[in-house]
Design goal:
Elements lengths: L4 H16 L4 H17 L9 H17 L4 H21 L2 H18 L16 H13 L16 H15 L14 H13 L5 H10 L6 H10 L5 H4 L4 H7 L4 E10 L5 E9 L4 E8 L4 H15 L8 E4 L7 H8 L4 E4 L9 H13 L9 H17 L26 E6 L4 E6 L2
Parallel strand pairs: 1-4, 4-5
Antiparallel strand pairs: 1-2, 2-3, 6-7
Amino acid sequence: MFKAVGDIDAYSQSLSGLGDCRYDQGRHEEALEHYLDLWALLVDDESGMAPSVVDVGRAHTQFRLGMCQRSLGRRAEAITALTEAVVLMERLQSSDYVQALALENLAAKRKAGPRRAAEPTRVRPRCSRRSVTSRRAAAATTWRPPHPDTHKTGIRRLCSLLRWHRRLVARQWTYPNRRMGRPATDPAVVVLIQKLARGNPRWGYERIRGELRHMGHRVSSATIRRILKRARLGPGPRRADDRWRDFLRAHTTSTLACDFFTVDTVTLRRLYVLFVVEVGTRFVHVLGVTARPDSAWVAQQARNLLADLKDRAGAFRFLIRDRDAKFTSSFDEVFAGDDIHVLKIPPRSPRANAFAERWVRTARTECTDRLLIFNEQHLRTVLDEYADHYNRHRPHRSLGLRAPTDDDSDVIPLPVGRIERRHVLGGLISEYQRAG
């Protein structure tokens, strides 16, 4: 296409100006001048290019040179487009190039097979923060004439106003979505159903339904079954489980628990203490203290207990004890005479007699472990005084922080006055009460 070395030099200089024009305005204008010189050389008829094409290219270059004086990016875009146009014109002048390109395209089609519709890839432009800021500033400072259809109120088209009105009407008269079918069960009723099922393991769906009806709730058996299944509670008979804890809870008021515990004196003599706990009221009976608990002594202490209970002995139906050899058959016969059934706990299972074991720990922690015991008489006096404190004043969590013999149903709260302190076991334990 070019006939002289100077033509190629001018073309290369224009390309170098394309690389530098983005940063230097003078180099950009110099590159455009080289392009104008290049178009002037193409006027020669021997170049193989029509004069009309050359004239159009020259005019286009001059137009770009005049319009790109304001924006540096526009100048680079103009030079890139003009360079591609010159290269394309040069390739189109060669028929060999066009024929080779056609053969290459045909071979590529045969190799690729049938054409598939390719999904358009969306390219997200990456713009720097500085360019975005400059564009927004230019748009804010550039004045644009108003559209001829724009009203004085700023609304460009009438259809926009009507569309806005339709949206406001639709938003005003939109009703909330309502669920189809029956309404959901009240959460309070769901909690009540689960509470009834857990508290009464042998109740079936109909039994729970009838209990709810007495309280004013109408729920179907299918709903109760679905609620219990969601809470992982099975049907009534299979939900029940006979446990030792449930048995004790159901018979607390008619159950006694007895056991032994030991105390070592100063002279390393071991003493045995026999006691009985009323499970319902947590009242403790210290029956006796001895160093040799034989069968006759244990049976006599059982008779003394029944004598102290008097008429209340008929209210008890069960006596829980362990399998200690000190509890002989004569001991069981004493209670069997008053229709009290003796229940033996499994071997090596102290938790089955938890009420008696708990009192042993309390007595050791608050009394015997903090004193030096000299003999049987001393231990009996200490335990009698501590049992009186335990039954008369000490609060119990299972009784609502009341003492076993305390009945505060008629207590009237009075303003705080003078408080008296009473010493128990020589000041080892203190009791406080309002001064009379």
